[in-house]
Amino acid sequence: MVDQLPNRGLELEMLQEMGMSSIDDLFDDIPVGVRMNEPLPLPPPQSEEEIIADARRLLGANLAMSEVVSFLGAGLYRNYVPASVFQLITRGEFLTSYTPYQPEVSQGMLQAMWEFQTLISELVGLPISNLSLYDGSTAAAEALTCAVRVHNRKAEQKDTVYVSELTPPDKISVMKNYCQGAGITIKFIKHNSDGSIDLSSAQQAAGSCGVYVEQPNPLGLLDGGYPQLKEIIGDKTALIVGIQPISLGLVEAPGHYGADIVVGEGQPLGSPITAGGPIYGIFACSKTYLRLMPGRIAGKSIDVDGQEAYCLTLSTREQHIRRHRATSNICTNETLIALMGAMHMSLLGPEGLNHLALRNITACNLAKQKLSEINTIALPHLQGTHFNEFIVELPSSAADCLDYLDGIGIIGGFDASRWYPERKNWLLVTVTDQTSAKEIELLAAHIAAWSVGVSA
Amino acid sequence: MSRLFDFAGGVGMGYSQPDTLMPKESVSLPASLIRKELPRWPRLSEPEMVRHYTWLSRRNFGIDTGFYPLGSCTMKHNPRVNEVIAQIPGIAQIHPHQPEHHLQGLLSIFHEMQHMLEICSGMDQVTLQPVAGAQGEFTAVRCVQEYFRKRGEDQRTKVIVPDSAHGTNPASAAMAGFEIVEIPSLEDGRIDIDALRAVVDDTVALMMVTNPNTLGLFENDISQASEIIHSVGGQMYYDGANFNAILGRTSPGLMGFDAVHFNLHKTFSQPHGGGGPGSGPIGVKSHLAEFLPGPIVKKRPIASGHENFAVDDMWYGWYQPANSIGKVQQWHGNSGAVIRCWAYYRRYGYGLKDMSEHAVLNANYLRHALHREAQKAGVTDMFVDGATTKVAKHEFTLSLLPAKEKYGISAMDVAKGLLDKGYMAPTVYFPLVVPECMMFEPTETESRDTLDKFAKEFIEVLQQDAEILHEAPITTPVRRVDEVYAARNLCLRHPFDE
Description:
The structure holds two protein chains of two kinds.
Chain A: H1 11-17, H2 48-60, E1 69-70, H3 83-89, H4 92-95, H5 107-124, E2 128-129, H6 136-151, E3 160-164, H7 169-180, E4 185-189, H8 199-203, E5 210-215, E6 221-222, H9 229-233, E7 238-243, E8 261-265, E9 281-285, E10 297-302, E11 308-313, H10 319-322, H11 335-372, E12 385-386, E13 389-393, H12 398-408, E14 410-411, E15 414-415, E16 426-430, H13 437-455
Helix pairs in contact in A: 3-11, 5-11, 6-7, 11-13
Chain B: H1 46-58, H2 81-86, H3 89-92, H4 104-121, E1 125-127, H5 133-150, E2 158-162, H6 168-175, E3 179-183, H7 193-199, E4 204-210, H8 222-231, E5 235-240, H9 252-255, E6 259-262, H10 264-267, E7 282-284, H11 286-289, E8 296-300, E9 315-319, H12 335-348, H13 352-377, E10 384-385, E11 396-399, H14 401-407, H15 411-420, E12 427-428, E13 437-440, H16 448-462, H17 466-471, H18 483-488
Parallel strand pairs in B: 2-3, 2-4, 4-5, 5-6
Antiparallel strand pairs in B: 1-7, 6-7, 8-9, 10-11, 11-13, 12-13
């Protein structure tokens, strides 16, 4: 029996009070021709105990990254979220609230989101942040359409944006879906063989509506050429930078080197990977984009007594008011996960973020060092600066190597040929603050053993 | 007040971290990339952080705080076991790029959810990828667009929406590049079949319908609407925002729809945490299935050597539809929300029908109780039904226009008065077709006592003097917030010393 219905057993009394005698009376407005006459062919209800037992059995059969040695990243990263974040997020007042349409009883969430906006604004070096988009890919896609809305009128290359050719295809796919309706053409900017951006290729993007690059880029490289990009593409073209938020504890904020819009996967700050969702997309921008940007924004205001108070603002950009002329169709976003992000950022503080970034980059450097000592494999971008992942070129396919490592209980990384089909032997190895020196030794030893085997 | 940016404590007090694996001094970055100034984040110790967010939480209202009859939002109780399940490492610590044999349990749950949603909706194939209702709409509109492109019917540039539709419908269709044709509703809020007939031709790609509609009325001419659209070669789209009203009683498939989105967070409960997350899977009839975003989970026999990884007698594998529109989110959608909704669904099983019946029972009972209490108190002259109909579905509307005209009491005044009584206010001023609209959706998880008590107190609010109500709320953490001030004096982040 279902145990979630407080009025079970009271149905008839309630119906009789309304002058009805059967539940069917409540549904007699459904025409006979479209009624479902058979019971739903589904199993019987379960108790809480049975559900949790099934959940433990089924989810327990999955191989969780926390239970194995893992070097898989490629956009989502193993992290540590402090216990207090998980405890606080279960506060029912946060957890079970809806969009703060009644600000007088939603001050907690509104203030927390206004604080989130400030934390993100400081992180990326831009004055404006919204309350989150769905994920990094939709944030990037919305940034492109936003750039076209703002710049198209004066653009020399109308309805055109440029995207780094290294961008993962799944992300490009999202961008294409978001861009096609507005008739936007996506062109690509080339990278050099060392992984850095080809600045002469970037030159071609001047006069378009926007340019999207990632820092670190999908090969894990920090690109020292980006600070020149804004000058190359000019004021009438939006520079959009996709970031890994932890890296900004060490790496210059894109807003400080000319980025107009910064987007990214917020996940490493505050959220477990959760198979890719719910996570949250960061979207921050300069004032130029404010009135044409997507997503909800919290503003500080006053109440009738002049007290400090918060509310949603600039809603006239949004679908519930502007309908088909809205800047985006987004309604539900990822506020709760963004709140976890804000809590994590609050605990880290500036120096904590810096240390977290250092843990990533030093672990990455250690892994680079250990793997570069294996002479049967190569690190094609060894001379570059990586943040927390890098490409290893293997003597045979990455898929084979991953299978081998999987047999030993190691998730060895990401088969980069899933992004770049011609790079069959490229393995993207990710090393985060959660990786130990021992795990790096283990990976190096097993990749060495495997590569000797396949080279022989 | 507790303000985050007032905290300026000691370095590293929030939580200590292990040392770096190599000395910090070994790190070298290109000079152009070295961050010169760290973000001006606050410095809090854990006790301060816990207190700050606890203080904030106490200034926020959730379902756990009290009755939340926010129409259109289906604010039902969120069973806590779902939260416990979502923290199991086999979902929380899963990477979407892990191979199938690491994920058999997860994929079997995805498959079960696809199957259950197909059964409830009468669709042939479901994808779980869209992460919110609006994204589900956009995804389905894109599938229909590609369907017509493949058929060479590029002239289909229009999407029809009733004027009572959620704003996301026209916004999603416009984002995909369609022209929006809005048709007026009948006086009772239902689709005007004659108005529909007048606008259809072979340039129509799609009609988007919410049923029950945003007034909580079942569109009893729905089969006729489907026929009209199909007769000109168009497609029918079901906005599943109000699916909670009809499970097991009818289905979009029976009504003639070709595609549907589900707001899993509403119908199957995922805590909405101040505006998200949600989850917006879509289901389609077979002719649209090849265009769905992938991957989708399909069952197949277990390959030899894989038996140890299997969770039952079949293998659960990813499958890419042949002419997929591609992806709408980079990963596999909001898997964590899907897991919670799976747990919710398991609680009901075939009893999902009971869920909808109780949702409709409660809505009709509340509507009845409000009229009953108005009668007792002699204030029947203050509001009328938003739609004159014998039964509503899971939600209903009242128009406070009489109160406004006679006493100067607006729907907003009443909403704010309810906040003082410890309730979340119903949705106000939506749908736009009802003047001074209040839209109530109690959901199935409220007891009769709560509904009776609310109805009584609602009438007490109406009986207050207009001048007093204009001042409401007075017991909330802040009083009426000046939204115009917020828009004119934009302050979107802490100003520091600037």
